[in-house]
Each structure stands twice: as structure tokens, then as C-alpha cells.
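To: structure desk
From: M.T.
Subject: fold request, one chain
Message: Could you run this one when you get a chance? Sequence is below, nothing fancy, just the single chain.
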Amino acid sequence: MFHNKKAGWILGCLWIVGGLAQAGDIDLMNQFTFYGDNTEFFEPFRVRETILGQQFKSYLDGAVGDHTFLWGGIFADHRSAQDTATEVQPILSFIYRTDESEGVLGTIQPVARHGLIEPMEVTTLELTRPIEYGLQWIQKDSFLHMDAFLDWQQLLSPADREVFDYGGSAILPLDDLFAFEAQIHGYHIGGAMYGGLVRNNLAGGIGLKIQIHPRELGKTYLEVYALGSKDTNRPLYPGPTLGSGLYTKLSFSPDNAWEFFGLSWFGQDYMSEEGDSNYNSLGADGVYYKSSRTYEELGIRRFVQIESGVTFDFELRSHWIEDAWANSFRIVAQVPFDLGVMTVPFKKTE
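Reply: Done. C-alpha cells follow.
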């Protein structure tokens, strides 16, 4: 529910950002997102889920100097047709930006789960957690492409444990066809001040991406990752502390719109707290456990840019979870409409 007190606080933040950024460009960034994601899972590892809703974000992007910027605005998420409540969160960030780097302090807007693959972070987080709060550093140059972050989910209090996750992805292009990749994701629950159990989950690995662009076949990608995991102090956890897995993805795109892909997974005692549970050895009930895991997935994706930055994304997937079969689909439409508010020359300081 959107309260007057929260509305006043957010409007105050917008006024402050506008005032501080009055010496440079100010743009009003807006985007509507309409989404639906349905998974028909009845296996012990991941249960079925339907996510349906609409999101809206609007914030001022104000230049304070040549390399410093401020964001101030709101993010709203209305989930499902039955629930009338709308979750509203503030967008308030300090950004340091150059041609090759960007550092963010405050509200983070992750792209594709910071580049993490499915065993590290489940794809539904793109819809359920499209903004985060913490720190982020993005690097993109001829040598390295990197997205590193710290996302603080819950602060420590006498009633609640602290919760945060962290990590990132890095791509090191070797040449036009090959790239070395590395990923890591950590999840922490704890806080020694008030006692209680401290839990940690860590997953990571290295990979190789092969990119092929023959004219007669379109774009073809092959990714292979060797992953490892470590899970400590999980109550009644039946598995060993350390786990491993091999992830392979083959993707073929005949044009810039259609994509056909396949995934395969061979895991041994692997466990990632925020990863897709179909890759884990621990079941969704926290009790069922299968040490040696296999998982395969085939999918078709249609991603098109309609006009003026408006995009439509449709994905249909088939899943083989051990000896069982399941299906899922996703539909997402994004409608941006950014506005230039004002441009004022920077004031020189003596």
C-alpha cells in the first residue's frame, strides 16, 4: 500500500536530486514492464510458480559534474490480478561514470542478474528483484567486461538477522571467437551482535565461451562452466559441505530475433541458495536430497524491438529433471519513455 508519508519522502528525494543536479543535464527515465512467468514443476527440487504483474520505474538522472550523477525516483510493482497492494520502493543512487566504468552506491538496477548463469541465480529474480540496494561496479573495456555487486537485503536488528548476497561475473575476451569467463555468488545470513546461527553459501566457477558467426548459420554460442559450491551451518542439511557441477549451454540464433538453446547439467552435492533449484541436490522441502544430479533444458526465445525502444520477449522451455518432464514459459514487454528535463552549463569552481 502506498502511504502519504512514503510519498512525501520520495517526492522530497526527487526535489533534492533536481536541485543538486541543476548544474548539468537532467533526464526523467521511465519504464513500464508487463510480465508473466509460469513454471509447471512438480518434482522435489523446484515447485510450480506463476508470476504475473506490472512494474513501473521513474527517476531523475541528473549530472552533477563530468563524471558524477544522481538518481532519484520510485519503483512500483503490482503483483497478480487478485492482490490490490502495490509495492513501492525508492530509487536513490550516487553514480561515478566514465567511458569504460560505472560505480553505483545506493539503488542498483541489475541487468540479467549481473550476468550470472542459472545455477548461480534463478531467472525469476529478473522479475521479483529488478532493483537492489548496495554497491555495484561495472567495467567494460577491450580487456575486461565485469559486473561486481553487494546487495544488502535485510539489516541486522534484535528481531531480524542480516541478509545480503554478493558476487559478480567477468568476461575476458581472448579473440573474436573465444572468451574466458568467471562467476561467483555468495549468500550470507547472520550477525554476531545478537547471537544466533550464522549461515554462508558460496558458489562459483570458471568457463569458456566459443562464439561462431558463419553467415549461412547465424550466430552460435557454446558455453561450458565448471562450478563448485560450499554450504555451511544450514540446519539439518543432509549433504556434504562441498559440491560441484558441469554446466553446458548451446545457443543458435539465425537472426537477431529468434534463439534456440539447450542446457545440460551434471551435479554432485551442488547447492546454491539463490540458484535455480533444478540444479541443486537439496529438494525444495529442505529434506529430500539426491547427491548425483542431472538436468536438461531445451528452449525457444523470441526477442524483438518493436519501435522506440519497446521490446517484446517470449520464451518457451522444456525441462527434464532426472526422469520427469516439465514445461515453462515467459512473456515480458518493456516500454521506456525517457524525457529530457533541462540542460544547464556546469558552473566552474575556482
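Reply (cont.): Helices lie at 4-20, 125-128. Let me know if you need anything else for the meeting.
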